[in-house]
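Recap from last week: sequence in, structure out.
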Amino acid sequence: MSEPHSRSVLVVGGGASGNSVVILLRRAGITVDLIEASPDWHSSTGSGITLQGNALRVLRELGVWEQVSASGFAFGSVGVTAPDGTVLFVAEDIQTGGPDLPATVGMQRPRLQQILSDAVRASGATVRLGVTAESLEQDADGVSVRFSDGTDGRYDLVVAADGLNSATRAAIGITDKPAPTGMAIWRIAAPRPEGLERTNLAYGGPAYIAGYCPTSDHTIYAYVVEGCRNRASIPPQSYADEMRELAQGYGGFWPEIVKHIDDPAKVNYTWFDRHLVEGPWHRGRVVLVGDAAHCCPPTLAQGAAMSLEDASVLCELLATRDDWDDQLFTDYRDRRLPRVRMVVDASVQLGQWTLDGVRDADVPGLMGRTMNALKDLP
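Predicted C-alpha cells:
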C-alpha cells in the first residue's frame, strides 16, 4: 500500500465541488491534477447564488469564508409577498451552519468561482483548462487517462465533478440521467435597489414565482419561475424581452429591477431538473461528486451546499483511510445518500405543489423540517 502523500488524484471539472475536492486533498498532501473543459474556467458567467449556513460551513473548512463574507451579502430572513409587492409575512431563516455563521449569504456566482479557483491555484495543484478526459482505463491499482490534448496520465483515483450531464459518469457506465421537473427559471444580475436586504418571493401573478436575492452591497440576482417551454422555440436574442414581460407583472422592488432587464446576453434560461444516482456513486477508482451524482430544483437553495458537502465528506475519508477501496466509496455514498435524497425530494415536492396549485400544502413545515435536519454535520 502506497503512503497517502504519494497518491495522485485527477479531478474532472472545476466547479464548486471539484475545486473544493482539490483544495482539501492538497491540504492532505495528495498530488492533484484538475482539468476543466472551459478555457476560461467559467470565471465571468452566471448571475447569483444563495449559500445557506451548511454551505458556508464547508467554505469555512476550505479557508475561504472571510473572502466569501467580504464579497457577499449576509441576511437572516426570507419574505413572502403578494404579486403587487405587499409583504405578507417574514420568516427567520434557520442557521444550518451553526450560530457563528449567517443563515444565508447571497453572492455573485462569478465571484465565488474566482475565490475558489484562486484557492485551487494557491494549493499547488496542476490546473489545465480547455482539456477533457477522452478515455479512462482502470485496473486494480488505478486509472490510466487519455486527455484531449494528446497527453496521458496515471492516477490512483479519478473524481468526476463534471456536472449534471457528466461525460465521466456515462463513461463508467452509470446510466442515471437528469429529468426535467416541469419548471423553468429566468435569471439576471442587476443593481441592488436601496432597501432590498433579503430574499423576497412572490407566488402567483404572471409566473409561478418571482424572487430576488442580494449578492453584494451593490448587486442582486433576480429570477422568475414559469412552466417549461421548448427551449428551441425561444430565440436567445429575445431572452430579455421574455423575462421582462413576466417580471413587469410584479410590484415592490420589481419595477426598478425591470429597468435593468435590457440585455439578452445577461439573461439565463434554465429548466429545473431532478437527478439522483440511486446505485453506487463509483465504479472502481472513479467516483462522483456534486451535480454528477445529484441535483435538485433551487426551491430550497441547497444545490451548491449538497455539492460542497460531498467534497468535504469524500476528502475526509480519503485523507483518513489507508485503503482507497470499494468500502471507502460505498461508505461515502451511504453517508451522503439519505441527506441528499431528503433535499432532492423536498425540493421537487415544493415545486410540484406549485405546479399543481395545491393551496393548503405544508410548505413551511416541509422547509422547516428539512432545514433543521441540515444543521447536523454531513
